[in-house]
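Following up on my earlier thread - several people asked me to post the actual chain instead of describing it. Fair enough. Here it is, all 111 residues.
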Amino acid sequence: VQLVESGGGLVQAGGSLRLSCAVSGSDVRLYVMGWYRQAPGKQRELVASITSGGITNYADSVKGRFTISRDNPKNTVYLQMNSLKPEDTAAYYCRLQLTYWGQGTQVTVSS
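Reply from S.P.:
Thanks for posting it. Predicted structure:
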């Protein structure tokens, strides 16, 4: 199983980014998929998740700004991030179930 994230970058506060997590070797429809982030000196935290049934869950800090979605034919999970804030700066990781991680993609939000 391999997870490959992309879409990170440098953006000004108030801007948007869309992260992608392309999965190979497994079917994203069958498992809980999650996006996590880790800022320097902080613990990795759950940002958003989506179940096999399509139920989504968000951290309070991103509710109303971030949206997790899944493209089944492409076997890819997305994280649409709007109204970005400097405190959203972190490395973002995709996770399949509780087992597999991607390598991460850096998001930096400038003030």
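DSSP finds no helices and eleven strands in the chain. That should answer part of your original question.
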